[in-house]
Amino acid sequence: MSSVHFHRLRVAEKTDETHDSCSVTFELAPRQREFFGYRPGQFLTVRIPDGDSSIARCYSLASSPHTGERLRIAVKRVDGGLGSNWICDHVRAGTEIDVLEPAGTFTPKSYGEDHLLFAGGSGITPIMSILRSLLAEGDGRAYLYYANRDEDSVIFKGELKDLQAEHPGRLVIHHVLESVQGLPTAASVQAYARGLTGLPVFICGPKPFMAVVRETLRELGFPREKVRVERFNSLGGNPFEAATPLPPESPEEDAAEVDVAIEGRQHKLAWPRDQRLLDLLVAHGLNAPSSCSEGVCASCECRVLEGEVRMVNNQVLEEEDLADGYVLACQALPITDHIRIEYS
Ligand SMILES: Cc1cc2nc3c(=O)[nH]c(=O)nc-3n(C[C@H](O)[C@H](O)[C@H](O)COP(=O)(O)OP(=O)(O)OC[C@H]3O[C@@H](n4cnc5c(N)ncnc54)[C@H](O)[C@@H]3O)c2cc1C
Predict the structure, then answer these.
(1) Ligand 1 contacts CB of residue 124 (under 6 A)
(2) Tens of pLDDT along 65-119?
(3) Cβ(284)–Cβ(270) under 8 Å?
């Protein structure tokens, strides 16, 4: 059996970033969180429906693992492109998308020094993740050279301004707009990078952009091993063909733990999140009092001493009963992971 799993993630939000790009934020179910730890600059592989079949495309994470924000990718439309246009046209809040776990090596070794970053167009995506992480975790400067066609094409323009304001003096940005200065040239790269030789460098953007930047840095004497590049190619194969969905969670895995004192004895039980307390006790052969089982009579009343539960229906307990911790076992579902309950 394959050891590669894919995960079905729910889209929390989709935002148009520019006229031809969007960002997509994912929601993680509690169980998915352990699989989506990542390093800044890594990417997700996304399954894109294609008729009865599917293709796979990689999209870098623009979010930082160090700022508590949700996973976010940013996608720029490619003329005639299948994946990028499907995402920009069809994905909405609530859409479920299959993705592989984060991967990639375009990631800083440490946060404790200044960094030089080059982004062209959608190449800003992994650079943004790196940038946010450097600013959040380190105390050095980030020098960003950012090339775009025109002002309206600048992805994350507002967020970059906000970051500059939040970290005064630590984010130095040089915008290059083709509509104003023309295409990025060796001379412009040289003017920006001269004096920064030796810093770790991250470059992501269209092929010709990366070629000019790399060649210029080489001429300036930047050591090759400190210059990292990320190439935005489309995948030829489909890694989802060899992947399987994560096996469903067993009920025990998604259960709270409850200590119940009933008829003078203590019982420790796993309490599945979707099972009512009375049903749980009966299933374990315990003699729990009950009558209507509909939340209207209070025969099953018990008291929560520790933790929190919620009731699906309560037509009988008053505010002061609830304040004293009384609940109806026939309607109670667990909220916290550990709960202590007592029957009088
Ligand atoms: C590690 C990594 C990270 C990436 N991160 C990002 C990111 O953050 N943001 C982002 O926007 N992109 C990113 N990419 C690029 C992304 O994966 C896609 O390559 C990009 O979105 C284009 O895919 P597409 O399906 O839209 O276009 P494709 O369908 O791959 O088409 C690309 C171009 O080729 C042409 N084409 C397709 N098939 C043919 C054919 N048979 N003959 C002739 N021409 C053809 C299309 O018309 C189009 O112009 C990343 C790629 C990698 C590898």
Answers:
(1) no
(2) 999 999 999 999 999 999 999 999 999 999 999 999 999 999 999 999 999 999 9
(3) no
Residue ranges of domains in the chain: 5-104, 115-230, 255-342
Q: Hey, which of 23, 43, 57, 207 would you mutate to test ligand 1's pocket, going by the most ligand atoms within 8 Å of its Cβ?
A: 57
Q: Ligand 1: distance of its center to the CA of 230 in Å? A: 14
> Closest residue (by CA) to atom 50 of ligand 1?
232
Q: Going by CA atoms, what residue is nearest to atom 51 of ligand 1?
A: 232
Pairing of strands 21-27, 72-76: antiparallel
Q: Which atom of ligand 1 is nearest to the CA of 106?
A: 1
Number of H helices, E strands in the chain: 8, 19
Distance 106 CA to ligand 1 centre (A): 19
| pLDDT at site 43 | 97
Q: Which CATH class is domain 115-230?
A: alpha beta
Q: Is the pLDDT of residue 2 over 70?
A: no
Residue 269 has what pLDDT? 93
Q: What percent of the chain has pLDDT over 90?
A: 85
Residue of the nearest CA to atom 32 in ligand 1? Answer: 81
CATH number of 255-342: 3.10.20.30
Using a 6 Å cutoff on CB, does residue 72 contact ligand 1? no
Beta bridge partners of residue 302, listed in sequence order: 327
CA distance 331 to 324: 17
- Residues with Cβ < 8 Å from 211, sequence gap 6 or more? none
Fold of 5-104: Elongation Factor Tu (Ef-tu); domain 3 (2.40.30)
Distance 226 CA to ligand 1 centre (A): 27
Helix, strand, coil shares of the chain, percent, nearest 5, are: 25, 35, 40
Distance CA 147, CA 136 (A): 24
